[in-house]
Amino acid sequence: MYEAIGITLSVAVGLAIAVWVLIGLTSLYAEVGLIIVVADAFLYACFPDLPAMRLGLTVHMSDVFYGLILGGAGMRSLRRGALARIPWPMMGFFFMMVLSLVIGVAQSGVGGAMEARGAFYLAITIYYFLTFDVDRGFVRRAANIWLVGAVLLVGLCVYRWTNMLLDIDDYAWLDNTGIKGRVLPGTYALMLGQGLAVILFAFTRGVGARGWIFFFPVLLATIIGAQQRTVWLCTVLGIFLVFGRARGGRGKLLATAGAVAVLAASVALPFLSSGKGEQVAQEISKTAEAGSATSGGTFGARVGSWGSFMTEYAKAGPIYQVIGKPFGSSYELHFDTGARQTFSVHNDYLQRLQHMGILGLLAWLAYFVWSFRRLLRGAREELGAEADLLIVMLAIQLVFSITYGLPPQQGVWLGLAGALCRPLLMRRAGRRGRVAPA
Q1: Please, which pLDDT band fits residue 264 given cuts at 50, 70 and 90?
Q2: Cα separation of 363 and 215, whole Å?
Q3: Whole-angstrom Cα distance, residue 44 to residue 65?
Q4: Element (H or E) spanning 332, and its range?
Q5: How far is CA 252 from CA 213, 230, 236, 263, 403, in A?
Q6: Burial 385-413 (b: 16+ CB within 10 A, else e)
Q7: Each residue of 25-48: pLDDT tens digit?
Q8: How crowded is residue 53: how many other Cβ atoms within 10 Å of its Cβ?
Q9: CA distance readout (Å), 157 to 160, 161, 296, 401
Q10: What is the mean pLDDT of residues 160-189?
Q11: Euclidean distance between the first and final Cα of the chain, in Å?
């Protein structure tokens, strides 16, 4: 008995020391935090139904990963002037989110905290990266780490498609739309689209390793095969923006892209000429046709839910319209028959409006405007290509948010955008002889 108690205590102390060391490293090195965020995304892409731990409260693996981020952010908050680093729009957004969370927990208990989990993790990630002194070198390192995550996701897709071709598993449990071959949820497929933008920037502007260009056709084929229509749109937008911001590197990019395309075609031709290749092409064609339909399918259902939500919102009282319903209240569709159904609003902007009201939504959009203005100005000055890369990342997020809620890992780019602009603001404020504005 005493031996068992001793082993249990030793394991507990060992785990506590390991967690403390990880939190310390996370607070010192932003790269550690970024690896944790990417690792969490890849883990849940592999195992979406990863079992939770029952420790009085239900603890998911994401709680552990983002608990490390929260611990690192908490330690960095103890530093002098930490809160002064937060831009005023994001400070307003944090306030509205915490207000909704506190009221939600008071009214709904654990249910309020559970519903706030995704938004809270996103906010933690943004705050964590805002507390660092970020330079152009770190943005390049972050881009490379993100690409490593994209490569791992490509490997996951290839593994699942191989199992489908061998009739081992059809992965219908991953997607309820009935689209064959959709083996990666949109929130993770978005990382592939952003990885494609990173590759193009790496080649044209030197943001990251230029050798990644030869991974371009593999990543593009994976994005197409994943059949996430919103990600297709985001990828096209990213390519256009990269070309728009590429300046002198467009000719070189086109020449190299042509050579890579010829190489990719020679490799893919045997597969495309087979029966399996024709079947895949048909599935992708069906997905594209469904994506252009606005009266039916998943997009039609989402448009209908947006209209229902706005009808409910317009009928609500002024308090709800201004500060939103607290977390834990969920969102219910009310039918003419009197039935009610809890429904997730597939729109990030409406989710902000739902739980943080018009004030929270305006603060959220104001941060994007704040970031775009300073990044565009910085791209013309000393922030260069790294600022352009962040502009593309944030623009992709704005489009993705139309049909999905923004996942926590996207807080990396939102935090880096504000952190990269911070030294520029401080230098300008120093020349003017006043305190730098947030």
Answers
A1: low
A2: 38
A3: 11
A4: strand 332-334
A5: 12, 29, 19, 17, 35
A6: bbbbbbbbbbbbbbbbbbbbbbbbbbbbb
A7: 888 899 999 999 999 999 999 998
A8: 11
A9: 5, 6, 28, 23
A10: 82
A11: 58
Say which DSSP state 405 is in: P
At 179 the three-state DSSP class reads coil
Return the closest-CA partner of residue 229 out of 182, 288, 305, 177.
Answer: 288
Residues 227 and 184: their CA atoms lie apart, in Å, by 9
Which amino acid is present at 309?
A: F
Q: Is the pLDDT of residue 435 over 50?
A: no
Angle (CA) 137-140-141 rounded to 5° is 90
Of all residues in the chain, the percent with pLDDT exceeding 70 is: 74
CA distances to 73, 107, 335 from 78, rounded to whole Å, are: 9, 31, 50
Residues 6+ apart with CB under 8 A from 425: 374, 436, 437
- Residue 90 reports pLDDT greater than 90: yes
The fraction of the chain above a pLDDT of 90, given in percent, is: 37
Residue 336 three-state SS: coil
Instruction: Decide: 359 and 322 in contact? Cβ < 8 Å.
Output: yes
Q: What is the pLDDT of residues 321-376, one digit of tens each?
A: 898 888 887 655 444 444 444 556 788 999 999 889 999 999 999 999 999 999 98
- CA 412-416-417 angle, to 5 degrees, is 120
> 402, 259 in Cβ contact below 8 A?
no
d(CA 65, CA 419) in angstroms, rounded, equals 22
Tokens of 144: 């490379």
H helices of 166-210, where?
A: 186-205
Query: What is the three-class DSSP state of 324?
Result: coil
Element (H, E) at 54: strand 53-55
Q: What is the pLDDT of residues 270-322, one digit of tens each?
A: 555 555 544 544 454 455 455 445 555 666 777 777 888 888 888 888 888 89
- Burial class for 20, CB neighbours closer than 10 Å (0-12, 13-18, 19+): exposed
